[in-house]
């Protein structure tokens, strides 16, 4: 299980969040300059946290909902009173929400009005190769388009979609191309969890701004020290004294979070990447690497009206670091609450017997100026197949981080997987016991996962989801035959 202690043991690589973590080091002047905005001068908790807009289908049939989304530049107030140019889905930051239902198709036409290529990946989704966002299957800038079909033949999950065009995915996502896709089913809907206005998606990330409030993008930038929640730096969110469900998405390129409430009180984690856990987990902290999601329920009924409670980041280098705080909750009034968190949330699928095993080694250069990322000693080559898997096969993959300092995480397209072991210890409970599609692998760690490759044949990728790393080449091709 990944805990705050295990994260901190990864060293200054994580607590500094960028450090010399095997990343491309900033060139001179790319770290924070006197002319850049000092995060310590940004006033916290003066802007309300917005909620992302829910998209409505432009048309629907008995089986399918249809959407059209335009990728375009937009200027948004991210810093209080300042405006920032962003690359967006439909002009929204964070991107809008698509709400989908298991068994009902969603078709999205993505139009690229940006000046760079894009390729849109629905992260965590079980989709055909043609709609997966293959890194080289790009949408031309200046009005090019592509239609993606999402069958939604998987159980409920908190998914998100983002750019995946190779070599530019890192900058495109950093500049705003990330949005939310909430897939539900009858199992989830049948529970009496907080719903409606009390079910809140929150996208977390970090940023570095220059003196004009524009985003500074440099691979491996150590100066991304402004924390952004739902498109605002250090916002506040008003809550009533009752239970809330928060769906947390780490949409950062590189930033790890260990989230906790400032009074140290516990909350219930009810889900991870692939939907609900088997049962709720009472915890006081929650670790999220880039690309990971978590579903939690916080009960504010224990707090009197007027309470201000901060969601903190336990991986900040110091308690007074700007990275130490994320957002503020303000308890405004009492409210009736009939929602519950049951002891049993779902039945997880039985693990079938594996038919084969393979080993994957993640590594990035930690010295020198021309740095790359590798899987099994190779940088990504779209013309090379790195792993061939038989359709329907269940495999166990042993993933090793060969770096001494650099953390990584590991994401496979097409499938959800189960974490079997971490450093030789079985994972039978805790936040990693549910369905996952992204898993943290700290320096020197070995993580064993199991997946069944069914549904679709074709070429997919697996990679480090620290997007600066994948853009450096830490990605490989999987072919299901």
UniProtKB/TrEMBL annotation:
It comes from the Bacteria. Residues 83-184, 241-311, 365-480 form the Plastocyanin-like domain. Pfam families: Cu-oxidase, Cu-oxidase_2, Cu-oxidase_3. It is an enzyme of class 1 (oxidoreductase). Its EC number is 1.16.3.4. Keywords: Metal-binding, Oxidoreductase. Monomer. This is Multicopper oxidase CueO.
């Amino acid at each position: 299980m990944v805990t705050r202690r295990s994260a901190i043991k990864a060293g200054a690589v994580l607590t500094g969040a960028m450090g010399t973590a095997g990343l491309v080091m900033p060139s001179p002047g790319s770290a924070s300059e006197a002319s850049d905005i000092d995060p310590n001068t940004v006033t916290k908790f003066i802007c309300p946290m917005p909620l992302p807009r829910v998209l409505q289908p432009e048309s629907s049939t008995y089986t399918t909902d249809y959407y059209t989304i335009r990728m375009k530049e937009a200027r948004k107030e991210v810093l209080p009173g300042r405006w920032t140019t962003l690359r967006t889905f439909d002009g929204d930051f964070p991107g809008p929400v698509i709400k989908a239902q298991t068994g009902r198709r969603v078709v999205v036409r993505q139009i690229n009005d940006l000046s760079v290529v894009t390729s849109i990946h629905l992260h965590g989704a079980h989709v055909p190769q043609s709609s997966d966002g293959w890194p080289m299957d790009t949408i031309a800038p200046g009005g090019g388009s592509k239609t993606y079909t999402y069958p939604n033949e998987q159980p409920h999950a908190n998914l998100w979609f983002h750019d995946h065009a190779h070599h530019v995915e890192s900058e495109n996502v950093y500049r705003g191309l990330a949005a939310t896709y909430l897939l539900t089913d009858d199992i989830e809907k049948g529970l009496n969890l907080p719903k409606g206005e009390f079910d809140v998606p929150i996208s977390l990330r970090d940023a570095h701004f220059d003196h004009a409030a524009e985003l500074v993008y440099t691979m491996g930038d150590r100066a991304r020290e402004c924390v952004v929640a739902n498109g605002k730096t250090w916002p506040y969110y008003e809550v009533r004294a009752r239970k809330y469900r928060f769906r947390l998405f780490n949409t950062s390129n590189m930033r790890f979070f260990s989230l906790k409430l400032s009074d140290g009180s516990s909350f219930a984690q009810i889900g991870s990447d692939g939907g609900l856990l088997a049962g709720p987990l009472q915890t006081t902290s929650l670790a999220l690497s880039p690309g990971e999601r978590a579903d939690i329920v916080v009960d504010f009924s224990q707090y009197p009206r007027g309470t201000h409670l901060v969601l903190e980041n336990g991986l900040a280098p110091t308690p007074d670091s700007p990275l130490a705080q994320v957002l503020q909750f303000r308890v405004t009034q009492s409210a009736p609450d009939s929602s519950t968190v049951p002891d049993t949330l779902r039945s997880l699928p039985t693990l079938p017997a594996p038919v084969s095993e393979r080993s994957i080694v993640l590594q990035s250069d930690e010295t020198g100026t021309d740095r790359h990322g590798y899987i099994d000693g190779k940088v990504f080559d779209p013309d090379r197949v790195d792993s061939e898997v038989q359709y329907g096969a269940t495999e166990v993959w042993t993933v090793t981080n060969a770096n001494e300092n650099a953390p990584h995480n590991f994401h496979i397209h097409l499938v959800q997987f189960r974490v079997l072991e971490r450093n030789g210890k079985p994972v039978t409970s805790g936040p990693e016991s549910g369905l996952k599609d992204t898993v943290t692998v700290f320096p020197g760690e070995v993580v064993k996962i199991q997946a069944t490759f069914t549904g679709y044949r074709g070429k997919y990728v697996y990679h480090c989801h620290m997007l600066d790393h994948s853009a450096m080449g830490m990605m490989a091709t999987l072919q299901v035959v």
